[in-house]
């Protein structure tokens, strides 16, 4: 199946809309809760963890629902049409605080996050699953994965340049209205970009046709969790997601308390995002000439070295840290492109072994482990900061400064090393199929 460039861009652009929401929360939510709303770090970490675990837990059910519909010849369009609207409304509600007191706001944000995560999962699973569901050649999947990540990075760049600078001031009287406006615009963009996937979803179900076997819950679960490549793939995603997002999540703490240079936050966030954007065309070009396994191992190794470089330059002149962060973003972007690009190949392995397409199911389990791992990373960071003696806005002890450095750089470095080991085993398993 070949997709016209217009349809490729339309499908991939959905990641721009999703990124405006996801990046805002991934990069800024913990800092927003502790520094703007005034919620203790451990409370904020718990809210993020529970909401992500809820999001993660419902993903397999949504995947099963979608795959069962697909087995009857029904496509993804109802999810892609209505879930973005619900998600946009819930996103705005996150910044419409009902009180000026931390405790009521914490309760409100907990329930608002649960609603937002539910709506987001209903659009995220089918949109992600289309990458594996469309009958594409391996190189086309890698290209689409790169396009998706390019749009994700473009959304991240918008957050870095338009939203992150507001956090450098930490002025609650000014930031409240700005965030609500940002949320409303982001929600509208989300709806428009996700709706671009309606036509590819219709075409995909026509090309795939009806499944050749019935699908029940037991077969759905065992076909994925009993497949070795699928389990290695999910394990690799978990190791990557529990660790690497902490660099961006802890970056504002790193700059405000370790370097005492909070104004550099949007600069470094922009460098990280630009590095990710540059990675897409470069990695896509390399994938046309070199094996995906070699590119994946190279980007992971480069990411580990870039993490070590960021730690080395943490106290150096800001331009050195900017360069290190750009390089880190480049290898981070390349690695994510490879991980998502492998989804179709792993889904094909599951289909060969089970006799039925489980594209939404595999991608649902992928988002399950990713979101659960990100939540675990957030609560670990919150607990470590809280019990290390972190006090918002205060001069931190040397112990707290070392904890921030370890959480932001050393823990992600260990996660990348674990990801390399699992990636090598997955590559061997796929080559044997």
Low-confidence stretches: none
Largest sheet: none
Q: Give the mean pLDDT.
A: 85
Can you count the beta strands? Answer: 0
Alpha-carbon distance between the two ends: 22 Å
Name the helicity range: over 70%
Q: Return Rg in Å.
A: 21 Å
Classify the secondary structure makeup into a structural class. Answer: mainly alpha
Order of SSEs: HHHHHHHHHHHHHHHHH
* Coarse shape: globular
How many helices? 17
Strand fraction? under 5%
Topology, pairings included?
Blueprint: H1 5-37, H2 41-71, H3 77-93, H4 102-133, H5 138-162, H6 164-169, H7 172-194, H8 198-208, H9 217-225, H10 228-241, H11 246-258, H12 265-287, H13 292-312, H14 318-341, H15 343-354, H16 359-388, H17 398-431
Your description of this structure?
- With 433 residues, the chain is mainly α.
- It has helices at 5-37, 41-71, 77-93, 102-133, 138-162, 164-169, 172-194, 198-208, 217-225, 228-241, 246-258, 265-287, 292-312, 318-341, 343-354, 359-388, 398-431.
- The longest helix has 34 residues, at 398-431.
- The radius of gyration is 21 Å and the shape is globular.
